[in-house]
Design brief:
single chain; about 350 residues; mainly beta; Jelly Rolls; eight-stranded antiparallel β-sheet; 6 helices; globular
């Protein structure tokens, strides 16, 4: 497949510059007219928490222990944008779990605490902008991952806390279409944690097979990895990030991709500036929007890395992992959400930890 067509396909599936796959083919020599200035073939729609009586009560309450359906569409389409803002307990970013079901499946393809899904893995709001996720002043959460479906889509939020949610505001923008391309894949997001990781003592401090690495996600089928969010709480002094990412592609026995350090994977360097000079940053494909008490016990980091420039492709198997310290020699707390696309509209997720287990602690 020539490069121009490949980029167009990824753009349509992964939200990189519109949805050209839903439009008529671009005639050669006319690419200089951008997609957003061309005639579109989809129908713009929105579902949200607006007051159906015409009043101003534009939010939903969610009782403790209750599940609220926030989106339900039939037929073919693509969710293009999700916006939430929430008035609830101080732990609501960890207490509320977002789930998405594609094409009538009973198993979710998205299952993550809302905070981790939106890059706020430690339960605190931090203002940042990336290409796919953002948090704005006023504690508003935004997601721009494209989420195609063929027969229908259903999204829910479950309040797994002990206190009621007073107001859950939601706007979900989506595109209705007569059909979507055969090569459009299903979006997945999976939560994992290790609180703490188990520190390893390895002879010679070598770790070539990654058997005890932290696992972001694991799946079977065909698709591509889009990236991760990660929250870290240090449980000991020193730099936590000597661990390398190791990504297994179509072979569970050994990684195909191995990196050079945690901060390198998140596209920073030199401990993000070190104990005295670490600086927060957020860019379109990578960032560290939260750095508190760096390299100290109790130090807190929120990080994200996306692979929109080069999604990591797999044909039959993918496992994304990272060392926790060099050769897994540290026992820090990790809380993460991984994002990917695959042909199957669901996968078998690990059991979601309880709220008490999810709330970050040293």
């Amino acid at each position: 497949m020539e490069r121009r067509n490949f980029v167009g396909t990824v753009a349509g599936v992964a939200g990189l510059g519109g949805l050209p796959a839903l439009n008529a083919p671009v005639a050669p020599g006319t690419e200089w007219v951008p997609n957003y200035a061309r005639r579109q073939s989809y129908r713009s729609r929105k579902q949200g928490s607006f007051d159906v009586t015409g009043g101003n009560g534009d939010a939903w309450p969610i009782k403790a222990g209750a599940e609220k359906e926030i989106f339900n569409a039939t037929g073919a389409g693509v969710i293009s944008h999700i916006w939430f803002t929430i008035s609830a307990s101080t732990l609501h970013l960890k207490e509320l779990v977002l789930r998405a079901y594609w094409d009538g499946n009973t198993k979710p393809s998205i299952e993550a605490p809302i905070g981790d899904f939106f890059g706020l893995n430690l339960g605190d709001y931090v203002i940042f902008e990336s290409q796919y996720l953002a948090c704005s002043p006023g504690q508003s959460l935004n997601c721009y991952f494209s989420m195609p479906y063929r027969k229908g889509a259903r999204l829910t939020v479950t309040n797994e806390g002990t206190r009621d949610v007073g107001a859950f505001y939601s706007n979900i923008d989506y595109l209705e279409a007569d059909s979507i391309p055969d090569d459009a894949l299903y979006f997945h997001a999976q939560y994992r944690q290790a609180a703490p990781n188990t520190a390893q003592t390895l002879a010679g401090s070598k770790n070539l097979d990654g058997a005890t690495n932290y696992v972001y996600c694991e799946t079977r089928g065909r698709g591509h990895l889009m990236g991760v969010t990660l929250g870290v709480i240090q449980t000991a002094e020193g730099w936590f990030g000597e661990g390398d990412e190791m990504i297994y592609v179509d072979d569970p026995a050994k990684p195909v991709i191995t990196g050079t350090g945690t901060e390198d994977y998140f596209l920073g360097s030199w401990n993000f500036g070190g104990r005295m000079h670490a600086q927060e940053f957020s860019h379109h494909q990578y960032g560290a929007p939260l750095i508190q008490s760096p390299e100290k016990t109790g130090g807190r980091y929120c990080l994200y890395r996306f692979h929109g420039d080069n999604p990591v492709t797999f044909n039959s198997y993918m496992k994304h992992t990272m060392e926790h310290g060099h050769a897994n020699n540290r026992a820090d707390n990790f809380y993460s959400c991984a994002f990917w696309y695959q042909e199957q509209p669901f996968t078998n997720f690990p059991v979601m930890p309880t709220v008490a287990q999810r709330v970050p602690k040293v």
